[in-house]
Design a protein that fits this description.
The chain is of the alpha+beta class. The protein has 23 helices and twelve strands.
Length: about 550
């Protein structure tokens, strides 16, 4: 055959390689776009209430107020957030960027494990499947324990499955595992994944032995670090690790029936359909029985949603990464088929839809609310709210999660009268439905268990509205027959607001005057039917910002 005749035929293998390279570049570009969207969301997206709560632990540690050791070791790694800004939202935005590093670590570990079991192109698709799976873009880098734990645990698993586990790797696995366990006890849900990694390396007993040594060393490191951390704080009564751990296990595991978070699970299934198709194909296609068992073990953290009460959206980016390893084998098995193309389309559609919805949830109202609090209180004061939204201030009261509200209701004991008398908080943020219902019972048509009637009444009697969710210590008083008696919630300087001059405790005052009042009963006299407000005096003056009283935590992903 003439040489020029050879050139007349196209090189199909070269074309195929070029097409594969283009496809891989497109997939990696998509993952990069997802990270870019997450970077923007870090600054603009609505902040969930427990991200503020997470930040409040950092400030409590800085101020010497941290009083519980369990799952708070992370505070030592985020002390620097107080240097970033005086505004809590800026601090959380920067913390979310830090969480993106852990999320990237999770993706790298997933890719490394997948590339070991399949090829590089399939590992790219496994990473894409995870990034575009339900809630990953919206919550994969939220300021919580979950992104940190996922990155640490997946890093440890990747080392166990892909290295010879020399001394450096043994130490790395031990440290990563110990830190993950200290960050959150839910890291124990990854135990089946570690067993799966051991099963995969079972033929090399030396590696298995070194992995077990790493596990024992992790427990020792975790124990020593926890004892050191506990020694640096004053543990409050009832906040010891043993009591908190047993209560958490009782409530979160098996205490809420079958599929307690079905709405979240159903949303995750819908947005993860493409990845699940390929993961199922991977489980079906492998002829290696041991690998099939490994994949089943890797799926168990996610399958805990059957009984796990706290399977909120942020839980899925923590529990899903091991399962997505199977996607690589499914992609390798189905590549080029119509089902494979459909799975890719579903992944891309999921990523686009989730990004659009999450980007639409702005934090402007939250930012304005916090700015107003700092305007009227330039120096920290004690306050009451749901979750520690003003993280640099000292918050009083129980954590008003659904779990916290249920525990409070089950106790049946009013708590706010004593709390207000003992701590004298001049600020109340009605940033949860139960608090809003207590302060605005006439406008609240709610279908939930609110505060106990005694607590709702004492809050209404002790605080008056300032702006948005912001309420200040004081009382609104109506003069009947020109007179009324009242008692302030605690001693302090209160400003008079009244359309006409009145007499307070025998002293004639006009609107704008400031009185130093104690808790003694006082008599107010003035025109019949006059409305008099006594409100905690602030130097900043009235609010110039219109803030909504509801919808502070809002959107498609609301928990």
């Amino acid at each position: 055959m003439r040489p020029d005749a050879i050139l007349a035929y196209p090189d199909h293998s070269a074309v195929r390689i070029q097409a594969d390279d283009i496809a891989r570049s497109a997939i990696r570009l998509t993952v990069f776009c997802a990270f870019a969207a997450m970077f923007v969301m870090a600054w603009t997206r609505n902040i969930n209430w427990d991200e503020f709560y997470f930040l409040s632990h950092v400030h409590a540690n800085l101020d010497g107020r941290l009083d519980r050791p369990l799952q708070t070791v992370f505070v030592h790694g985020f002390r620097w957030l107080s240097w970033v800004s005086d505004h809590e939202i800026d601090q959380i935005a920067v913390a979310r960027i830090a969480m993106m590093v852990f999320f990237a670590g999770t993706c790298c570990a997933l890719h490394r494990i997948a590339a070991t079991l399949a090829d590089e192109a399939s590992a790219d698709i496994a990473t894409l499947a995870f990034v575009t799976s339900g809630f990953a873009i919206a919550h994969g880098a939220s300021f919580r324990a979950d992104p940190m734990a996922a990155g640490l645990l997946m890093g440890a698993v990747a080392l166990m499955m892909t290295t010879r586990m020399g001394l450096v790797q043994v130490l790395a696995v031990a440290i990563l595992s110990a830190l993950a366990l200290l960050v959150t006890v839910k890291s124990a849900l990854y135990l089946p994944v570690f067993i799966g990694a051991l099963l995969w390396r079972w033929d090399d007993r030396g590696v298995v032995l070194r992995c077990l040594i790493a596990g024992l060393l992790a427990l020792v490191i975790a124990g020593l670090l926890f004892m050191w951390h506990a020694s640096t704080i004053n543990v409050a009564q009832g906040a010891d690790a043993g009591g908190n751990l047993s209560e958490a296990a009782r409530v979160t595991l098996g205490g809420s029936g079958f599929l307690p978070r079905w709405p979240e699970v159903s949303l995750w299934l819908m947005f993860s359909a493409g990845g699940l198709m390929l993961a199922g194909a991977g489980l079906y296609a492998t002829e290696n029985k041991r690998l099939r068992v490994v994949f089943i073990l890797f799926a168990l953290p996610l399958l805990s949603v059957v009984i796990y009460r706290n399977a909120f959206p942020y839980f899925f980016p923590f529990a899903v990464p091991p399962l997505m390893v199977a996607v690589a084998l499914g992609a390798q098995y189905l590549r080029g088929t119509l089902l494979f193309k459909l799975a890719l389309v579903l992944m891309l559609a999921s990523g686009v839809i989730q990004s659009q919805r999450a980007l639409s949830e702005g934090n402007a109202t939250q930012r304005a609310t916090i700015a107003e609090v700092h305007r009227i209180f330039p120096e920290p004061v004690s306050y009451i709210d749901q979750n520690g939204m003003i993280s640099s201030f000292e918050r009083h009261g129980f954590f008003m999660s659904t779990w916290g509200i249920a525990t409070y209701r089950a106790g049946g004991k009013p708590v706010f009268a004593d709390l207000i008398l003992r701590n004298q908080p001049p600020l109340l943020l009605a940033n949860r439905a139960e608090l809003h219902a207590a302060m605005r019972p006439e406008t609240s048509n709610h279908q939930f268990l609110g505060l106990l009637p005694e607590d709702a009444a004492i809050l209404r009697k002790s605080y008056v509205h300032h702006a948005g969710v912001i309420w200040l210590a004081g009382q609104d008083i109506m003069l009947t027959d020109g007179v009324a008696t009242t008692q302030m919630p605690f001693a302090g300087h209160f400003r008079i607001e009244s359309a006409s001059p009145v007499s307070v405790a025998g002293r004639k005052v006009s609107s704008g005057d400031v009185l130093a009042l104690d808790r003694d009963t006082i008599e107010i006299k003035g025109p019949d039917g006059a409305k008099v407000r006594l409100i905690w005096n602030i130097e900043a003056g009235l609010s110039q910002t219109q803030l909504p009283e509801t919808g502070l935590y809002a959107g498609f992903w609301r928990l």
